[in-house]
Structures are given as C-alpha cells and as structure tokens.
Write a structure and sequence with these properties.
mainly beta, 5-stranded antiparallel beta sheet, 4-stranded antiparallel beta sheet, 2 helices, 5% helix
Length: 395
C-alpha cells in the first residue's frame, strides 16, 4: 500500500490513507498515455534483436501492466495488463513462471489473487480473490515449495498463509497470525505494521518484518496444514522501523532495510533454529546524510552474494554495498540516481545483468545494467514512463 502521509513529513497533505490512494490512482490514470512509450531496443551485431523477456508492473490505480523487456539493455515495451485489480502494489511469480500472484486492496480487508500468464504477458484471472484477513495487505511471496502463498497486512499488523491449488489458483486461508506491540515513533509505530513476509533460501522458516513493532518474527510453516507456527523474534534498533529483508544466497546472513532511521542492518542466521541475531547497522546514504528525510525501501542481493542494492526514497537513489567478511559486514560503495522520484521497489533480472527501480511518485521504471565484476550500475537509456508504481517484477 502507499504509505500514509505521516510516513513522509515533507509530503504530508493531511489526507487519510484511502484518500491518498485515490489521488495516486487518479495520477496513474493520467499517466496512461506516456505508459505506451518505450525505450528503443538497441541492435546487436548483424542487426539481430536481443532476446525478449517478460516483466510485470504493480501499480496504484492502473492495475497490473505487462511489458516485454530487452534482455540485453532492459528496454521496456508495454504489452497490456489487467486493470481490474485495485492497487496491486506487490507481485510474485509461481515457481516455473506459469502463474502470477498479486495483492488486491479493493475491499475493507486486503485480498490476494492469481492469474495465468499467457502469450505476450496476457493475464487471465485464475479463481477468485481470497481475503488476507486484515486491512492494507502490502506484501506477498510464494513459498519455495509452491504450495502456499504468504501475505503481510500492513494496516492490521498480521500475516497470513493460503494454500495454492493444483491449477495455481489461491485456495483457502490456512494461517493467520496477529502481531502485537508498538515502537517509539508515535506516528508510525503506534501498533504493529507487518510490511513483508518471506522464506529463507532453503524453505525451512518464514520471516515477517514488522515496521510498527521493530521486530522480525520467525515462523515455521506446517507443510500439511499450512498453519504458521511462531518460533522466535528479534528486535531491531529501537525506532529503526524494519521494512524489508533479504537473505544472502549462500552464507547464513540476512540484511534488513530500516525505513525510519535510514540504515541497513546485518543479521546472522541460524538455519537449524530459524533464529536471527542482530549485528551492525550502516547508513544507506553517503556522508552525513541527505538534506531531506530518507526512507529506505527495498533490498536485493546479487546471485553471487558479493553486492547488495538498496532503494532510497527521499535521497532518490540506489545504494550499492559491498558484502564483506563472508557476509557479516556491508560497506557502502556509492549511490546512483534511481531514475525517478520515490523508488519504492527494485529488482534484479533473473540473469543478474539488469536492475529495475519502481519509482512510485515519478511514475517511471529506472533501468540499469549491472557490471558483474564490480556490481556497478549504469543507467540504460532514459527511464520508462508509466503509472505510479509499487513494484516491478522481471521474470
């Protein structure tokens, strides 16, 4: 969901969360015309076009947009989409890429739903939307086994699990856990706000990151019943506001972007017990910090585990960190402009050679090539003009 005005004092307008969403939706509709513009794909030797892959954009007010992208340059071309879903600000693909899952915030409670992916990225609704059990669902992920869909309700401060049926549709809710507690920031941490739910690389434990309680919760997903069983929890620095987490691909560490104090924290991970232990935190912008408040959002790690990327809202940048000491430490190397305003999300392509940013207020996708040796990012042409974005998912 888009953040409430209190999340970003410089942008506060006194509007409530739902009114703010409505304004973003109107802006997104107004951005429909430029959404059809695409970067011109570059030619290869002999004039052969680069291979094309699929990407999906989760928007505020304009449903899901499907695009093709040049696998070499990242150049995007709009193909179509599915407008009949409300603020699908986060998306996830099924293992194998035959189904797409999205949020749907059209009701008092959030919902999750499934789509089949057809030729040219065409989306067809697959079964009904299913209630996530709480208001303002903000994140979802597919368990690596492909049998369960996990979701986090920001407004309610709860996390849920749904069974995935054999045809890929979303079935009954099998688990719902309510977080309790608060943090020291009275405007942002008055209660629990579950912002993310993911699984460790081996699929053994599930982790919920809660901005409101300053905690990361560990759960075990019962493979038979789909219930979420609490295992342990770890506190962040008070007032940090943990938002999103990513695991190192091979080492026993995880990295958490903290929205409220503009840091990223290293956590050591015990794969035998699911327990996380908090380590050092590092600023996400260089020097003494930006002149405006900064709110980190998404984190991603390169497939070889050598580099971490983080999106900075306010600083309007993507930070590149070197992962050092076998995964135990981070060193900020540089930042590059995100290609638009308020980079809510970023993602690496499956090949790891491209990075995309979803700029919520800028209504753009920033496209970057990734140097595999240094991890450096280079803008690949001008940003792609589209709607107000929650995420970009290359598949």
């Amino acid at each position: 969901m888009p953040p409430p005005p209190s999340e970003h004092p410089a942008r506060s307008s006194g509007l409530g969360r739902r009114s703010f969403i409505g304004l973003l939706g109107a802006a997104a509709i107004g951005a429909q015309a430029p959404a059809a513009r695409a970067l011109e794909p570059s030619s290869r030797e002999g004039g052969e076009a680069a291979a094309s892959r699929q990407a999906f954009l989760g928007t505020y007010g304009n449903g899901i947009i499907s695009c093709a992208y040049d696998a070499s340059t990242g150049a995007l071309t709009r193909q179509g989409g599915f407008p009949g879903v409300t603020n699908p600000s986060f998306l996830a693909a099924a293992p194998g890429g035959k189904a797409l899952y999205s949020l749907d915030n059209g009701g008092r409670q959030g919902a999750v739903r499934a789509f089949t992916i057809g030729t040219g990225g065409a989306l067809t609704a697959l079964g009904p939307a299913r209630s996530s059990g709480g208001a303002n669902v903000t994140h979802l992920s597919v368990h690596p086994g492909g049998r369960y869909l996990l979701s986090a309700n920001y407004g309610a401060g709860s996390v849920a699990a749904h069974v995935i049926n054999g045809d890929g549709s979303v079935g009954a809710r099998t688990g719902l856990v309510q977080h309790t507690g608060s943090g020291p920031d009275p405007s942002r941490q008055e209660g629990p706000h579950a912002h993310q739910i993911i699984t460790d690389p081996k699929g053994a434990y599930v982790f919920a990151v809660d901005l409101g309680t300053d905690k990361v919760y560990t759960y075990r997903l019962d493979a038979g019943s789909g219930a979420l069983r609490p295992v342990s929890e770890v506190r962040s620095v008070p007032g940090a506001g943990p938002r999103h987490m990513v695991f190192h691909p091979t080492a026993s560490y995880a990295y958490v972007a903290n929205e409220l104090n503009s840091t990223v924290t290293v956590y050591s991970y015990n794969p035998a017990t699911g327990a996380l232990t908090r380590g050092d935190s590092r600023p996400t912008v260089p020097g003494s910090g930006p002149a405006v408040r900064n709110y980190p959002s998404e984190v991603a790690v390169s497939a070889d585990g050598r580099f971490l990327y983080l999106s900075n809202r306010g600083h309007e940048s993507v930070a590149r960190f070197a992962v050092t000491e076998g995964g135990a430490a981070l060193r900020l190397m540089d930042t590059v402009p995100s290609g638009g305003s308020w980079p809510r999300h970023l993602s690496l392509s499956p090949t790891g050679t491209l990075l995309f940013t979803a700029n919520q207020y800028g209504n753009t996708v920033g496209v970057f090539t990734v140097n595999r040796d240094s991890g450096a990012l280079t803008a690949s042409g001008p940003p792609f003009a589209t709607s107000s974005l929650g995420c970009v998912l290359p598949v």
